[in-house]
Amino acid sequence: MFSLGHVGVNGRSMETASRKRCTAIVADDDSAATKTIKVALEQLRCDVRKVRTVSDVLSTCRDEQCGLVIAAAGPDLDAGSLCRELRGTTPRPRIVLLVDRHDANVLTAALAMGADDVLAKPLIPAEVVARLRNARDIVLLEDYRRYLEGEGALLAEITTRASLHGWRYLRAQLGNEVVRARRFSHSLSLVLVEVGGADGSERGLRSCYHLLADAFRARVDWIARHDERTLALVLPETGLAGAMRTAERMRDRLLNTAPSRGNGNGNGNGKGTGAAPRVVHLGVSAFEADHVTVIADDGAPLLLEATAGYLHDALAKGPNQIAGGPALPL
Length: 330
Prior knowledge:
This protein has 9 helices and 11 strands.
């Protein structure tokens, strides 16, 4: 059996496709057929790896995200079982079965098992190349369609959920919060959350934003973007001790909800999908109520700088760490 890697239509790499290139998997005891298919795959610029069993095929497809599987039934491989298993995977690879003879009943039975195409032995090299090229192009077009759908979902999310404000909004509104804190002698805290690992992207950052926003106090706490990978969480009327507890809850919420894998919805609810783990670091600082009145109205940069320093300390401590302290020396 072979699993065809993702290469570009007409032999060019499709750099914008969402899935990585995968290898070709071989599991056929027929050495002549194996050689013919291997030559065809190499002509299509694919790599080849040998496997024998259905479980090997499924694990390789899962790990490599294979787009096309070419299989021949044998003592260690039940073609019907393989088709059923592969058709239940997401994204589903295109399946080509190898049969032993040109016979209408055999070809029909292979298609009834769930194959997308059938190649009959003895294989004709030119036919093998042509059919695998067509299958490859279908796989790549489907892959690219999913990629575009994911990008479209992200653009729609950005358009309709524009509440994740940027750096300028953060500086301006944090300044207003400092003024209010001084006026009413209230504490003011800031948490910076740097998102890495599987979620170190625009979609991943927004996924984390929505996870955290659901846990905030409505119309009191708010979130903005600090930089490309960092969220700023502003906690009015909250001292350092409360902000540290909030940071711990935020970290647990983010780590216990695994990033979604390649579905483009950005909802961050892909727990159990096999996606790489999310990595977060949190820096926490605060103006305490007892000291806030000595701060100038333009104290926002001071709070931002202090919190960024504690975030740097968290990064130095290792993955998923929190560091915090007062914005003013006690």
